[in-house]
Amino acid sequence: MIKFSSTTFLIILLLLSRLNSFSQVNYSELALTGRGDLELAGTQDKLQKEVFEAFKKMQQAALKDSISIKIASAYRSFDRQQEIWNRKYEAYISEELTPQEAIEKIIAYSTIPGTSRHHWGTDIDLIEEVVKLPERLLIEENYINNGIFSNFKKWMDKNSEKYGFYLVYDDTVNRRGFKYEPWHYSYKKLSYPMLKEFLKVDLIKLLQSVNLKGNKFITPVFLQKYTNENVLDINPKLK
Ligand SMILES: [Zn+2]
Fold first, then answer.
1. Which among 9, 25, 62, 64 counts the fewest CB atoms within 10 Å?
2. How many Å apart are CA 40 and CA 20, to the nearest integer?
């Protein structure tokens, strides 16, 4: 019989932890900010392959319970997020808001380009495929009480975490940052290490180097507050 000394035991533990760190994928700054260097699967709605496969499994399981899950939004590039930002910024400036007011108004609902979790290929906005879709899909009232997607939401509350998907912007009282988004789910196994890596990105440098309207008003102090509230004040299971 083999008898392990405590030193042997420690060495084995050390080796196992090394193995674990080897299996982690390193994401580049480009990948973390939606500017390429990320392998994606899918045609219209793109996600990382592992996320896509986990989603398919969840979708099939839901279908057995007569819930038809559909993706409303998956991967989004930096350029796409920048288009959204610039369009909103110009509209608010033409309504005579100051640059600071325009930026505050945009970030109530939209992310600063480069900071969206949709850049990672791990996050999805989901709806239920019902016979008659409402005009506005991603609004809270569709998902709560007897809303049109409330059966989907109840199923997700019970099952999504079994498939690796977690709500990001939950309805915890006093959570800051983005408002409650009962449609936005994240595949934790990949988004958790990506968030850790993302926090190392020099966002000021990135935002000053791109064609982003109002970027000179995005100061380090503003960005720190945004990071604390909009990036980090999320479902505690994801950070
Ligand atoms: Zn989303």
1. 64
2. 24
